[in-house]
Design a protein that fits this description.
Elements: H1 2-10, H2 18-39, H3 45-56, H4 71-88, H5 91-98, H6 102-113, H7 119-137, H8 140-143, H9 146-154
Helix pairs in contact: 4-6
Length: 155
């Protein structure tokens, strides 16, 4: 094993940081161990499920529906979001991508944020995120469908 690691670290790949690769594997093993010992432990599962249910359904009922913001509030929220994004972006990058003028920059970021105002785009985005999470948790779903896997496991 040490020889294999020595060979891998001796390879001079300027675009690959080997320490990142090894650290990522180490973190993955630590997370896997923590999930297997704490979350999937049969003695911990009832309290974990009880806590999750209490967090999702306080007082054993559904939470009150969210209040939809008025159009004026939606514009204010979008503007604050654009200003926050710009405050996190370095000035040099703002100069390159948005040009001079603070108000112009905010307007351009607001236009980009308008993409998330389309419900069709949001549905595709959320489906993509959910699919990515499911495929990361169960990689076999990327290759075969649910019915094929069920048939394979039952036969």
């Amino acid at each position: 094993m040490r020889q294999a690691l020595r060979v891998l670290t001796d390879i001079d790949l300027p675009h690959v940081d080997m320490s990142f690769i090894f650290a990522r594997g180490r973190v993955s093993r630590i997370l896997s161990h923590a999930i297997n010992t704490h979350v999937l432990d049969a003695s911990q599962l009832p309290s974990l499920l009880r806590t999750a249910r209490a967090a999702l359904f306080p007082n054993n009922t559904l939470a009150p529906p969210r209040v939809v913001p008025s159009p004026a509030e939606a514009l204010l929220i979008r503007r604050r979001c654009a200003e926050t994004i710009l405050s996190l972006t370095p000035a040099r990058i703002q100069d390159v991508y948005f040009g001079p003028g603070g108000e112009r920059r905010v307007k351009e970021v607001e236009e980009v944020l308008d993409v998330f105002g389309d419900s069709y785009c949001n549905k595709h985005f959320l489906y993509g995120v959910v699919e990515l999470i499911v495929v990361r948790l169960m990689p076999e779903l990327a290759e075969k469908g649910v019915e094929e896997l069920l048939e394979e496991r039952l036969s």
